[in-house]
């Protein structure tokens, strides 16, 4: 690692960087690759799936009676949206996931259907005519209309997000490229991801349906994959897993092009906890289960995408944090600071609490960081800068006494702005250093009610903040 870092641009660890993307090509390429780089493999002929609505195929059933807020038999259509259907199938195979789907769908009195995406804080309404039109074509899935309803809604969601991306970048695009982007179907084969979206959670269907209480993690390390499959065998109703593969799971043959995503219905182990076999569900027909020997199929799995119910969420978070800690060289002060920043910045309260606990408590975290900083030759203001960046990631808003006139109520933004002005101003080094320290101290006082030295030397103040945030001291 070099010495000059811009935290906002750093790639951070094998699963995610600050924006949720991969940093290590030997590890996972991010949730995005898992979810989006899978093109459709159109094995189901139009003749085979035409006329198939539900398992009873009763054409006398009225349109609004078809929507029952459950995912039943469905077959992937001509779109390459296996990444989406696999996640929906995985949810439907668990109690908590089926409940998320049920709660997301509202059947309105006027015959329309509204789907709520809690994670995006958005609602989308689909009319009868839209759903009937989708039933007639081969673009979306065949069979269960609830699956098709969700496809229509996510197509709308990603279309909006794609349009926003185009608007934000249109000055850099030619008219031809803009036209091509607008003609794409965002959910088809990962077009939305390839357009350059940087929203880590926007591709996480569990998060979008369930909201901030749900988060998915991606792995491509063999040991991680095996460990997560064992968790699935222990808690089949609480863990959902989708996989990415470049092979036909059933035959073991390599696809000529593209790849595919499937969900895992269950995993079987022997009395010693060793994995024996895995049950897969292919979006091409979610009514069929493909059971494969674990030794035969593990080499075919490129990566997995894992989420959990509220009952098992904390165990999944602990696994992710331990994996993250093992990845970083925490004997290096910069690695230590970055580990804290990515673990405490823009994460759920539960995640932060568990991270602090896994690191031995906040007191130990601060002491370890201080010891590592002492090994470096840094100017006083740079030393204080590193300390406060560390603390501000742990306590993003201090004790909530931040003045409203600070930009975006963000101490780091305020400090960086003022510090940058001083860096650019012509003045003797010593004088500039003193002024920078004053700006730093003023910033800390705004957020924490005391200066940086007082804060770092006051276990009582740190303990008070720990109680406020629920951290282990």
What this model shows, in words?
The chain has helices at 31-36, 46-49, 63-66, 82-92, 95-104, 128-136, 145-169, 175-183, 191-194, 205-210, 222-234, 294-297, 313-327, 333-344, 349-358, 362-374, 380-394, 411-424, 429-448, 452-456, 459-469, and strands spanning 74-75, 105-107, 113-117, 122-126, 142-143, 217-219, 239-245, 260-269, 275-282, 285-293, 301-308. The strands form three sheets. The protein has a six-stranded antiparallel beta sheet with strand order 6-11-7-8-9-10. The radius of gyration is 25 Å and the shape is globular. The protein is of the alpha+beta class and 473 residues long. The longest helix has 25 residues, at 145-169. Helices cover 47% and strands 13% of the residues.
Summarize the helices and strands and which ones pair or pack.
Layout (H helix, E strand, L loop, with lengths): L30 H6 L9 H4 L13 H4 L7 E2 L6 H11 L2 H10 E3 L5 E5 L4 E5 L1 H9 L5 E2 L1 H25 L5 H9 L7 H4 L10 H6 L6 E3 L2 H13 L4 E7 L14 E10 L5 E8 L2 E9 H4 L3 E8 L4 H15 L5 H12 L4 H10 L3 H13 L5 H15 L16 H14 L4 H20 L3 H5 L2 H11 L4
Antiparallel strand pairs: 1-5, 2-3, 3-4, 6-11, 7-8, 7-11, 8-9, 9-10
């Amino acid at each position: 690692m070099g010495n000059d870092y811009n935290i906002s641009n750093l790639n951070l660890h094998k699963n995610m960087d600050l924006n949720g993307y991969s940093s290590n090509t030997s590890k996972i390429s991010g949730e995005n690759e898992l979810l989006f780089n899978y093109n459709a493999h159109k094995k189901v002929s139009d003749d085979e799936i035409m006329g198939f609505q539900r398992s009873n195929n009763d054409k006398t059933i009225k349109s609004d009676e078809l929507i029952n807020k459950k995912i039943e038999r469905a077959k992937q259509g001509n779109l390459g949206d296996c990444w989406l259907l696999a996640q929906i199938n995985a949810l439907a195979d668990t109690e908590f996931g089926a409940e998320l789907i049920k709660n997301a769908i509202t059947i309105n009195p006027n015959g329309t259907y509204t789907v709520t995406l809690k994670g995006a804080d958005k609602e989308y309404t689909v009319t009868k005519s839209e759903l009937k039109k989708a039933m007639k074509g081969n673009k979306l899935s065949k069979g269960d209309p609830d699956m098709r309803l969700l496809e229509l809604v996510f197509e709308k969601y990603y279309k909006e997000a794609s349009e926003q991306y185009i608007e934000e970048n249109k000055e850099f695009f030619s008219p031809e490229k803009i036209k091509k982007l607008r003609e794409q179907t965002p959910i088809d084969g990962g077009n939305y991801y390839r357009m350059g979206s940087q929203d880590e959670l926007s591709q996480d269907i569990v998060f979008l349906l369930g909201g901030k209480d749900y988060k998915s993690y991606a792995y491509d390390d063999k040991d991680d994959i095996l460990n997560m499959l064992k968790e699935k065998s222990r808690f089949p109703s609480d863990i959902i897993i989708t996989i990415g593969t470049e092979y036909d799971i059933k035959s073991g043959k390599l696809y000529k092009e593209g790849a595919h995503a499937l969900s895992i219905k269950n995993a079987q182990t022997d009395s010693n906890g060793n994995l024996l076999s895995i049950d897969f569900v292919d979006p091409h027909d979610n009514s069929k289960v493909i059971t494969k020997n674990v030794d035969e199929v593990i080499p075919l799995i490129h990566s997995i995408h894992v989420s959990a119910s509220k009952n098992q969420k904390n165990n999944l978070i602990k696994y992710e944090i331990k994996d993250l800690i093992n990845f970083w060289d925490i004997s290096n002060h910069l690695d230590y600071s970055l580990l804290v920043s990515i673990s405490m910045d823009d994460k759920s309260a539960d995640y932060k609490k568990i991270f602090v606990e896994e690191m031995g408590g906040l007191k130990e975290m601060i002491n370890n960081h201080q010891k590592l900083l002492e090994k470096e030759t840094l100017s006083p203001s740079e030393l204080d800068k590193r300390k406060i960046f560390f603390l501000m990631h742990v306590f993003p808003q201090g004790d909530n006494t931040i003045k409203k006139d600070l930009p975006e109520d963000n101490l780091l933004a305020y400090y960086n702005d003022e510090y940058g002005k001083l860096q650019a101003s012509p003045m003797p080094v010593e004088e500039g250093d003193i002024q920078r320290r004053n700006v730093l101290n003023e910033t800390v006082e705004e957020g924490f009610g005391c200066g940086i030295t007082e804060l770092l030397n006051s276990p009582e103040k740190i303990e008070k903040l720990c109680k406020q945030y629920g951290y282990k001291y």
